[in-house]
Structures are given as C-alpha cells and as structure tokens.
Write a structure and sequence with these properties.
By secondary structure, the chain is of the alpha+beta class. Helix content is 28%, strand content 28%. Bound molecules: zinc ion.
Amino acid sequence: MITRNIYRCSLALLLMTGFTQAQELYTPRNIKQAIEKGTRTTTGLPGKNYWQNFGKYDVKVQLDPVARTVRGNETILYTNNSPDTLKQLAIRFVNNVHKPNAVRANYASDDYLTSGLKIKSFTLNGKVYEVNSGDWGTVKLGDFGQKILPGTVATLAISWEYPLSVESDRDGMLNASTFYCAYSYPRVSVYDDYNGWDILEHNGRQEFYNGFNDYQFEIAVPKNFVVWATGELQNAAEVLQQPILERFEKSKQSDVAIHVATASEMKEGKVTAQQEWNKWKFKATYVPDFCFSVSDNYIWDAASVDLGTKRVSIQSSYVAGTPDFEQYIGWQQYCIDWFSKNWPGVTYPYPTMTAVQGFADMEYPMMINDSSVPDNFVDARQTADHEIAHTYFPFYMGINETRYGYMDEGWATALEFWIGNAEIGAEKNKELFKDSRVKRYIFDPSTEEDQPLITMTSQLNGLGYGNNAYIKAALSYIALRDYLGDTGFKKALHHYMDLWHGKHPTPWDFFYSINAGAGQNLNWFWKNWYFTNNYIDLKVDNFMQSDNKNTLSIANIGGFAIPFDVLITYADGTLETIHQTPSSWQQNEKRSTVTWASSKKVKKIRLDGGVFMDYTAKDNVWEAVK
Ligand SMILES: [Zn+2]
C-alpha cells in the first residue's frame, strides 16, 4: 500500500508543481518585498499601503542667450509620504550628462560637453550647507545630518547655474539664439517603495524616472524672446504685445491654425513686451517634469482641439518655411483627438501640447522636440505621433523608464502603429512599420536581440536596449490585442490605466492588472513574451489532406506566441485566409495544428505574420508536388 500512496503523492506533487510553474511569474526579491509590505499586490491593485512622495516646485530661472547660461533659484516643498525616516537626500540634475567626466553611453563631441551644474547655495529646512557640486554626476546622494520624518514636509532652497551645450541633443542650443531647456533645475530624485532612493546615473541613453510634482515656473528672457513651456502661460498679457496676445487667445478657441507670430514680426520686435527682460510664468499640476524652449527667431503657430470635455491648446515653434513643421498644428490636433477617442481611448490629460523643431525626437510633458524631415511627411508625422503618444506612457502612467523602458517605448510604438492605420491605410502602414521598426530587429541574429524583454533597461546597451524597449514590447502589445480582441483588450488596458495613472507601476503591476482587467490569467502569455529568449520564426512542418479534412502542422521555432494568417491557394485558383490568434500557442508553445474543412485540392499554403515578421520566411510555405 505504501508504494501506491507514494505513487499518488508524487503524481499529485507533479501536477501541482506543473500547475504552479505555469501560473507564477518570476518576481524579483525587491518586488516580492513590496508585495509583502502591502505597497503592491498580485491582483494588480496598488497595495493598501501604497505611497509615493510629492514635490511642490516654485522655480525662477533666467536665461542669458549671449552667455548661453541658465541661472535659477527654487523652493521645493518635499512631502515624505513614505513610512521611512529619510536620513539622506538624493538630488538629480540630468544635465550633468554634459560634463566631461559624466557616466555616458555614447561618444560626446566637444560641442556637447559643458562644465555642468554649479550649486551656488543650498538650504535644507533653513540650514545652509556648503555644497561642492564640482564632483556631482547626474544624481547625488547626500547625508545632510537631518532626518525627514514620515508625513513631514522638507523645504529645500537651491540656487544654481549651468551652461547650455552648443550641440543639442535632448536639450541645448537649437540655433544661435534658440534653446531647448530640458532638465534645467535640480530636483529631488525618486524615493520609492521597491528601490529606496533612485541613484542610477543618467547616461544619455536610457530615459527617466520622475516623481509627480506641481510646478510654478518663471522664466526671464530678454525682450523679443518667446518662451514655450510645459503647462499654461499665466501672464500672456504681461509678456505679449496686444495683437499677438489677441491671436494667441483666439487660437485657444480656434480649430484653424493661426500664425500667432510671423518671421517678420519676430525680427521687427513686434511680438513681446519691450522691457529689457520679460518674465514668462507657467503653471503645471501633477506632472513628472517641466521644460521650456526659448527663441527670438522661431515662428509661432497655434490652434486648439475640442475633445468634447475640454479644448487643448496646440502650438508649434519652428524655423519659418520648414515644410513638415507647417503641418504640425493639424497633425497634433488629429493625433490628440485620435488617441483620446480610439487608442488608448483615454482623454488627453493635459491642457496644452507644443511641438518645437529641434534634433531630439524626444517627449516631455506637454512638449515634443522633433527633428524636421522636410521631404518625407509620413516619416515626420510618425515621429510626431510617437512622441505625443508618450503623453500616456510614461507621463500619465508614471513609468520608470530607466529600468523598464518597454513599459513606455513599447506602448508609444504600438500606438504609433495603430494611429498609422488611420492616417495612411493599413497596407501602407504595415510596410512602413516593418521597414522602420521590425526589420532591424528580426533580421539581426545577434544574441543581444533575444535577451528577455523583462531584462532591466538600465542593464542594456545598443541593439539590446533599442529593440527590447521599442519593437519587441510593441509586438507583445499588438499580439495581446489580437488575442483578447478589441473590446477585451481595451477593458484590460483601461483597468491597468485607471488603477495606476499618476502612480509608479512596475512590470508586475502591469501584468497582474491586465490579468484582472482581462478576467483571465495571462501569465502564460507574459512568460512567453517577457521571460524567454524567444524570437519570431514559424515553420510549416507537415500538411495532410484527406477527403474534406485539411491538417496543417506548424512548428514555432522562434517561440513567440504570435498571431498569424494561413493563406491557402486552391488548385482552382480560389483563396482562403484563416487567422490564428496567439491562443494557438497557449497549450503548446512549440507546435500547433490548424484544421479546416474543404475538399478542394490545395496548391499552396503560406504562413504570414504581417508585422510579426519571420526570421526565416522561406520555410513558411507548403506547395503541392507538381
Ligand atoms: Zn519613444
């Protein structure tokens, strides 16, 4: 009897183990600890003990266009909502990536380099500190001998200056008297429930992880310089001449683009108030960052878009006569409306959006800095769509891009694909997406390409970084939409977005909240796409036809659970397409069988993944022997 019992036990154990392995996702120890502490959950809900810290920033800067410097002073009211007593404080200044000795992912030209941040005074809770910012990187963790207790507000007062780089990347000089000023102020780095202080250096490649803050920003510039910024301009009447002011105010109610300031008006001093320095005041509430752009020669277009519940002010700032930027008002109106009403189908969360002609192809809250592609409007518009899509991920959703880039770039890339169908038609868009996104990933057999998606972005470089963050993640979301169908996918996506917007979801919060929103355990799908070295490669194994039953066996060599079409050509010339969703791979990730009824003689069968391009497409075909 004992033998039999042992047999039963081991069978039960085997079944249980198999079941558990199929259901559980690898969870890092720090995320497990967060779940144990009740700040996060396995149901996708933020934990009952979830917290995040908050800053209220009152910033005054002065930009000297001749000296190319920004000087500033700020007061930060920093609320410690954590249960921890903070004995240290981390200050982040991303712009120090321009310092010669910064930790940097890429080669830097002489024109990119600057001397970096100079802290001129630093006060914490009224106590003055001597700060030597000469040895600061992009983040500095300091021990100030003070304790910031849970539930208290620390007051920081900082004054600083830094030079603007000649060669602009995500920030810097755009032309002799035009500047894009991003990351222009020292900020408190994120302190969170799963890592404590975020002290990862910014290296110019990975993107950002910022807490949500309220900003009041005053930007002093010489007369004839216009300022565009995150948030709403509070004192247009003080800084603009009357005709310009009237046009700007009118644009906020106008569907049609208005030239707020033309090239000749900029040149002739007819735009701004004529005092030596104008102070432009902006306000932005609960956003992860603030940036601005300054020019005395860019022109200024504006209109707005009516989303039903509100009008969003749309602006463009660019070099007169730049053909693609002349289209930007219309493009921005269209995509803000489309994203609000289709995918993600969440109303654009901010009051403004401004596109500035630069070199970065980079998103900022309520701002994008795009390079001009004057001879290819499709390409230019794809960039505009992508950068504006970032409004949702990372900004609205508070994504930690530094560690989990796929949680924002993947979505921006998927949204860029979906809006492209509406803009240029599905067929043309499919080819564009393959050319611009998929080919450089799938046809490169380097090991870097097949690192698991879950790999921390901060640990990746080059190809491994780019394709993991963008295309592989985008394909996982496109596959999930195909698997769940539009209604189910939207329900799941909105569940995640409703639960986590304005917070800091990790990939596990995403997986679990999508599971809950979809009403099914998708861990097999997450495992397949995120925790393997899979790629895209199907192969026709065998085809059999008997009477009116057709059986096609397919091997999944690459392993990703992709959707695909079976394209059948019959001997009589008729065609049939059978669509297979990723559910084909749910029971067996390596093999699947497609069956259909037809007594017509089959001439040819081809598997087509569409944008899920196959590494070796030539073995995706079966042909009848002639
Ligand atoms: Zn992006």
